[in-house]
Amino acid sequence: MLRRKSSASSNPPPSYTSDAASSAPPPAFTDFPDSYTVNKQSGILFVDNGDLQAHLKLLAAFNALRQKVEAGCKGVAAELEPKARWTVFLYVAVWRMELWLEQRAREPAASPYPPLDVLLIWHSARLNPLRFAEDRIRIHGDAIRLTDDQLKRIIACIDAKATYNPPESAFASWEAHTSQTFDPILHFEETQGRPLVVEGAEYFAPWVTREGTGYAQQGFLASVTLSSGNKLAVTHESLGASRLAEDLVACQAKNDARASLAGTVVSTISCPSSPAESAQAVRVRSAVQKSKKLGGSVAEVNKLCKYSLQGAQAVLRTMVLTGRDITNILSRYTRGEPFSLDLAMAALRQGSFIQKMHDLGWLDLDRFSDDDTILSRCVARYHAFLDLISSAPSSFFVPTLDIDLAWHTHQLKSSYISDTMRVIGRAVDHDDKVAEGTLANGFDITAQAWRARFGVPYSTCGCPLPSQPPLSRFANRLGLSSSNTAYPSGPIAPSDADADATHPSEHNSLVVVGHPAAERARQQRQKELDSRRVRDAKALAKDVKNGKLPEYERVKREKQLERSNDHAFAFFAPFPIVPIYGPLGFPAGAGGCAASDGNQVCPPSTNIQCGTASNAQCGAGASAGGCGSTSCPPTSGFSSCASATHGGGSSSACGSSSACGGSGGGGGCGGGGGGGGCGGGGGGC
């Protein structure tokens, strides 16, 4: 909800609608308020135009880095296709982030300026706020935290050409600690692989091999001789399972109050300062301590779990844990890095959003130097979006690009979780992996709820919106009545100047290619959208014939129809956005597996379980690019966890205690998202 300062009563904003008798369009709205009202709390301003411009500047630097890598460079990835090269680069960057965290843990006063590739990975981690918070509390402490002031100083080092120029002390500090080149491109041309430690046994894993078994490839496989003399086939899954074994052993020690399992400490209603203050973490730890099956060493637990998440699942089931406990835990251990999600794949998915910002022209650093009205509208619409979330806690709302930019910007602030808890009553998570059909349905609901609450269209990008049901349909859910329009429409009314920015944000959409259920659901959505276009054209013709429209309104609606006819609808990706790659990153046949900018795409003929941590997973090692960590039940009829979310198709999607990615009652992958959805209810992106 928006609230104008005291001048509001004497100078009301122009209405979005206008009399047919008037042929002149209403003046463009420019008198934006200084603060907003969210959930009846006034004086709220979580982000402003300057924050958005700073964030866009950071995204411009990330985009320039990606363009350089994809343009070609020397080293292990020189022969790869550009997008495959970028994927390998991101896995190298994740390793460098591990080194950066080690440096900051040892030297808290060291330079806060990370290399640009590390900053990119940190940024992607930050956009998963609850997992980021839990990783900070459980593992990294303040080492992973950049204060708001530090981030401002880092962004100030980006020049007008989107080049990152930190102080010389940053170079010296980094190189002294890591013996690596600070420049990410130069390092990428030099690096060959990374060291790994499994049960005390050290191993050097190459990034890329001709056989496709490198650490940054989808078929990672290595043979390691353990201290026992036994050989172990190491995969990303076995590394993740071993990390879980380490935490299980730590939980058995009664003198370590910080010991906990990932997925048990932070929730939407609780973000404690330590695991010992989390009732859920304490309960799960107590169940681990009471277990009679666990051994006393990591090697013993690994053997019991068979170095696999499926084996770990069986062990966890012997404890007094709920199905939700088990799936939340397992989904955090799909890989060996000390993070609760696959950060390389998170960065890859985020890259598609950055590309959208580039396509809008918003990464041009001079774009808003003379007129930042569009950013003011972003800020207004974001606060209205939060107000909408607060009005319907059980609903799943999908942001547009402009709102998502402001949302991402807010998440970069240290106060994000406390802000949303204070005004909404819970921490609003940002799920970056959601089934395409769930997003499409969620966007329709958002558009209808937005129009009902605020009285203006949610989007004018060209995607035809659903018909508006009677207001009473939303009254109970949104707390509205026929006489209760939420607030003046001016600040959030759509404008032709930023129509493209009101396109649904779909960087987090999980796409399934070639699966019959997913294809049928996609075809049904296409038919529905086509019928909406016909509906809109007929409505315009009728209004023109009846003389109901002023000239400016007629022209505006005709432009809207033109955009619709030429527009690429959201949540439609019948073919992979990224080419399907073979072992070394060269294009492969259609029987392969791919990552659609980090969103998993699996044809059913592969019989590969996307989203599992198996060494045959899809998407250049993208174990976390799908839903969850364990395979979907074979009876579901789906060949992959990603397709089990099915985009609104079959009702046999994962959702049991052994399902993918969350407890998801009603068939959802990802916690709370009933109806076959990925992602929790209540405003997840």
Automatic annotation (TrEMBL):
<protein>
    <submittedName>
        <fullName>RHTO0S10e02454g1_1</fullName>
    </submittedName>
</protein>
<feature type="compositionally biased region" description="Low complexity">
    <location>
        <begin position="16"/>
        <end position="26"/>
    </location>
</feature>
<dbReference type="InterPro" id="IPR009836">
    <property type="entry name" value="GRDP-like"/>
</dbReference>
<dbReference type="Pfam" id="PF07173">
    <property type="entry name" value="GRDP-like"/>
</dbReference>
<feature type="region of interest" description="Disordered">
    <location>
        <begin position="1"/>
        <end position="26"/>
    </location>
</feature>
